[in-house]
Fold:
Amino acid sequence: MTGGRQRARRGRSHLRRRPGHAVLAALLVVAAASGCAAEAGDTGTGQGAKLQAGQPGAPADAPAAGALGTRAAQAERAKLAQAARAVAAKKWGLASTPLAPPAPPAVKPHITTRKGFEVEGQDDSLPPVFTTVPTKDKVVFLTMDDGDDKDPELLKMMSELNIPYSAFLSDYLVRDNYTYFKDAEARGVTLNNHTLNHRYMPGLSYEEQKREICDQQDIIEKQFGKRPRLFRPPYGNYNTDTLKIAKSCGITAVPLWAEEAFPDHMEWREEDLDLHPGDIILTHFRGKKDWKGSMPDLIRSVMKTVTDKGYAVARLEDYV
Ligand SMILES: [Zn+2]
Structure:
């Protein structure tokens, strides 16, 4: 009980000192208050069990202790954000409003290499290769590869819908228009590594793979200011060298995918042909010249599947 209250106090003072972190601080306050309320329920009657202002179940007009105001403001913000998303969903022709994801986990899950995806001489120091993030949250992750089609409508649509996604870029397709991806990055898209030239990694020598992976790390850092942590090998093919090299130039995880989305259908990796909590969905920056639709068509299609099945799209980098 007291621990929770102290945490809440610290959260408030932190909020005053550093307004830039107000949202994070607000989340911490809510988390602390919730934990405290649960304990109160367990202890039953008695003075200690009384609800404090700012805890779930406390009367709305209880003396303002800071946490209540923050929590109410946060709930109000979430409500407004979802209302804005509903408007955007209508504007962009989505079948239904995308669901809001839960708050990101306070601690990222421990991820290990999926069974059957190990390399020769596999050891735990190599970046894990996985298709689904271990989580109970009803979320999936949207990832977009290559970088060929650069449709400004996509950036606008995703910003207005407030749907997070992660890009895996191959420089040979991106270098004619870094500005497009700078715009994406400014809108919150994380730019990750998908090699320089999209070659089949196991067919290359160690030195060639190193150039494909590590030079792309350098280019992304130089062009966009951040060195990627995530790497996806072209076609999902890799060997021991690939993972060793990726690790040597700053990669910590190798997310593959559980589903691949197209404008007119979904391809499933698992036999049940269904989504699962933490599934990573692959799709591509492609346009009408490549497949039957535009990027907005693709998003409408994949979001229909995701929302109909009761999932929200969360940010991959919040979990990995
Ligand atoms: Zn690719």
Remarks:
- Residues 265 and 301 are 8 Å apart (CA to CA).
- The chain has ten helices and nine strands.
- The beta strands are 129-130, 139-146, 166-169, 190-193, 254-255, 259-261, 266-268, 280-284, 312-314.
